[in-house]
Specification:
The chain is 37% helix and 15% strand. The protein is an alpha+beta fold. The strands form two sheets. It has a three-stranded antiparallel sheet with strand order 4-1-5. A two-stranded antiparallel ribbon has the order 2-3.
Length: 131
């Protein structure tokens, strides 16, 4: 069952999920992090949730609090997907500009990979991928 921390997606490409290959054409419920990264990469599309009128829900920040009050910690697979999605979506300068807009701090001469890590650590990856 869907909740506000997951998203149902229709896979447009085969992916690896929990160590198993899931073929294109399947519908899966994934964490917001994984789902948004796959959508940004063009490997999935969001499935409209019941009661939303077909509208997508807004992106949730990476550092969203879970029901226990602790910050959500992404898995290594989610981090890999986020890095790739940010790398694919942005060149260095537009990434730096968007990261600054959402309050991410990094050295002025930082390379793209450093900016990507700063964005993820600040919990702003989904905000940049949702744009």
């Amino acid at each position: 069952m869907s909740n506000n921390k997951t998203k149902r997606v229709h896979l447009l490409a085969a992916i690896t999920l929990n160590g198993a290959i899931v073929e294109a054409g399947k519908t899966e419920e994934l964490s917001l992090l994984s789902a948004n990264a796959l959508i940004a990469e063009g490997k999935a599309e969001e499935v409209a949730q019941e009661g939303t009128g077909g509208q997508q829900k807004g992106a949730t920040e990476l550092n969203e609090q879970n029901s226990g009050g602790a910050p959500k910690v992404p898995t290594e697979d989610e981090l890999t997907l986020l890095r790739k999605a940010l790398d694919d979506k942005y060149n260095r300068d537009p990434l730096a500009e968007e990261a600054k807009k959402v309050g991410v701090e990094f050295p002025y001469d930082a390379k793209k990979a450093v900016i990507i890590e700063a964005v993820i650590e600040a919990g702003k990856a989904e905000a940049l991928l949702a744009e």
